[in-house]
Amino acid sequence: MSNVWGRGIRVSIFGESHGKAIGIIIDGLPPGEDIDLDEINFYMQKRSPGRDQLTTPRRERDEVEILSGLFNGKTTGAPLCGMIRNSDTRSSDYNSDLPRPGTADLTAYIKYHGYNDYRGGGHFSGRLTAPLTFAGSIARQILKRDNISIGAHILKISDVLDDRFNSISHELLEDLTKSSFPLLNKSLEGDMKASILGAKEDSDSLGGVIECAAIGIPPGLGSPFFDSMESSISSMMFSIPGVKAIEFGAGFDIASMRGSEANDEIYLENGSFYTKTNHSGGINGGITNGMPIVFRLAFRPTPSIKKTQNTVNLKTMTDSEISIQGRHDPCIVPRAVVVVESALALCILDSKLSDRW
Fold this sequence. Notes:
This protein is an alpha+beta fold and 357 residues long.
């Protein structure tokens, strides 16, 4: 069993949702990189819970204690360890005998023979995206120095659909990053929030779709077959709890096109290669082509809901019912946007560092 990701950098997440702390170790960061702690805190607060009615009422400050790898504001080249202490836990909301449908409660029980920490989902909780956001915030700062920008927006919640990325600029991605509810069509914010609150009032939950993009990507990143850029991004994105599907560029729509429509025709401008369209999402043959990386992620509805559901009692091995009373987001999508951005930053930095000749 392994809990390590990456080639150019290596990251390992530790901790459980209701344990003393959660955190991450990042190995392979280049030495001498300036790290802005205020910028890290900005991204951490975008992901943090308890901010409004759209999120879980669990309140965590999500302040990161950097234990190693940073000295006088610069990376040292040693493994960088960031730890976040848990403070607002309420473990009595969870019953080890009744696995929650849609969660990892049952599969974790089977795999770890009942020794797993079930409180709040334990090591499988969305709480573990906090250290992932921290690590990605460091990667973003390093990438910015190479003029690489990353941004994402909420594409879909319920039946409310935002516009897709079309013309992508550094300014657009920066504006999305600064927004607390990032949309391309900002007039849809009220409808999306109303859908989330409606599900919450009905003791239910919603999923949604996030679209993410990065520009300034140099061509040539990624290696076929098993270290392709799509493989790297997909493996990281499926490490985010709740992600159930990913598509790049035109995604599943490309299956309905003819080759003459799907192909991104190539042209030269000032000695550089460009394509007239970007149906491939900036990647061909697993290698970046210099165009924007664009992909979309489908998030399942939050599985912990108050509606009565069928389950089993692991102690008596009989059918049973459960109504979950813990504190959970009615929709994880708004808080997941910054997590997706951070995860992509790690993928790009990892590829840049591992692809150096």
